[in-house]
Design brief:
The protein is α/β, with parallel strands linked by helices and 155 residues long. The protein has helices at residues 42-55, 71-78, 81-87, 96-106, 123-136, 145-148, and strands at 2-11, 16-26, 29-40, 63-68, 110-115. It has one domain: Nucleotidyltransferase, domain 5 (2-Layer Sandwich). The longest helix has 14 residues, at 42-55. The chain is globular.
Length: 155
Amino acid sequence: MHIQIYTDGACSGNPGPGGYGVLMMAGEHRKELSDGYRLTTNNRMELLSVIVALESLKKENSQVTIFSDSRYVVDAIEKKWLNGWIKKGFSKIKNPDLWLRYSQIASKHHVNFVWVKGHSTNTHNNYCDQLAVAASKLKNLKIDEGYENKTNGLF
């Protein structure tokens, strides 16, 4: 079964409080995911939304199409920038903790990306944005360890 995943991230200030929103659909099945962090960046939330969605899949080798309004995420994958970053050990690349996490989970599935224009006519993307914004305003936001503890460098 083919799975469609819509993702979005939001951040109040950059850095600032942020959140992600995910909508997953396969046949009649629908699942929503969201969470918020007290200090993060928009790019981290965009990427984390994709990671969390893929990590929530129960079966390996799933056929997945991810719809994202993040050029940062879509271009890094579709233009194969991530492959070069990995070969170079993420020298001077931001968010290596999340890119490594993405690479590990994505290798277990057949993933394609489609860029969609944000804040436009895509109902599912707009809904994910609402989930992300709402998550960023929750009480007791999580700590984005990779950002706050500056493990943004490789190790």
